[in-house]
């Protein structure tokens, strides 16, 4: 069998293992949906009148781009960093490396897992937003095309960085702290839970270094009215810079993976 066929088999196996881990499913799959529902319920009255109501932006629509961006990060970066670190620590990677399976098939399985779960999560999130809270979804092909490339770049970048980041963990016991903590911090400073315009300028500059801010901004350009781009740091959606930053992180992640990825835990051969 060739690497692609084995990669598909790995994807199926990865999905089965993923859905057996209830905690992982909750935090990376259900968590953004629960957060969107909670924010839409708590802040609904604040969006019932004024400029946002005139623009057709209710609370659910306001928080939707951030929840989509957070979902991409959770299903790619966080889930992959945690799972790869655990598989390295318990010897799974070492055993896989000793089999005839091409190494690329393992990574194809991880990519297939992230792509499948991210799409499923987004579909459910959009369904909840539309049916449960009456969110106006984009109607133009250009908007959905923008969503497509931001989503794909975000998933690819998050997956590669998650694999690279997993090497920082010394064991499966420590990986949770070094992955979840920075993930939460980035969500709070990248326009996921708060309006990005409300953050201090210095914190905006810090957030702009990392991919999540650009994924969230790209999603805002899809789901917000076009005239809302005036509220961004540069006064535009900056699609070109979004692609550039995400592409740079993707390339950097690939280089780091190639140089640092280990099939065995530290101190073993």
UniProtKB/TrEMBL annotation:
Presence of keyword Transport: yes
Membrane topology term: Multi-pass membrane protein
InterPro entries attached to this UniProt entry: ABC2_TM, ABC2_TM_bact-type, ABC_2_transport, Nod_factor_ABC_transporter
ABC transmembrane type-2 domain mapped to chain residues: 23-264
Annotated Gene Ontology cellular component terms: ATP-binding cassette (ABC) transporter complex
Any matching Pfam family: ABC2_membrane
Keyword terms, alphabetized: Antibiotic resistance, Cell membrane, Membrane, Transmembrane, Transmembrane helix, Transport
Any GO BP: response to antibiotic
Keyword Transport included in the entry's annotation: yes
Primary residence: membrane
Superkingdom of the organism of origin: Bacteria
GO MF entries: ABC-type transporter activity
Cell location: Cell membrane; Membrane
Residue spans crossing the bilayer: 24-43, 63-86, 107-129, 141-163, 175-196, 243-261
Family membership: Belongs to the ABC-2 integral membrane protein family.
PANTHER family the record matches: NODULATION PROTEIN J
Protein name, per record: Transport permease protein
